Amino acid sequence: MFELTLIWLGIALLLTPILAEYGKIRNKADRGFLWMGAGGAVYLLAAAFKLGIDGMTLSALGWGATLFSVIGLIITLIGAIFVLTGILK
Fold first, then answer.
1. Could you tell me the mean pLDDT of each successive run of 10 residues in the chain, 89 residues long?
2. Cα dist. 83→20, 57, 62 in Å?
3. pTM of the full predicted structure?
4. Angle at 15 between CA 18 and CA 80, to 5 degrees
């Protein structure tokens, strides 16, 4: 069974640049919102690992999902720092 929370998190992070453009704050921290969108794409990739592939063991799929979840977390945190510094300038 796949993690639905990873899918929702990925979709929410992919929507952050769109909502920032709608709120007229994207120009202040454009680079940060791009990092957060990239984090959303990585979280969707982690959710894809949870779906499973024929011929692969569940332990190998679990490591892939964990690895991409950690990478997505790091990318999202970098994006959040860029957004905070850009908006608070």
1. 80 94 90 95 89 64 85 97 93
2. 10, 39, 31
3. 0.84
4. 95
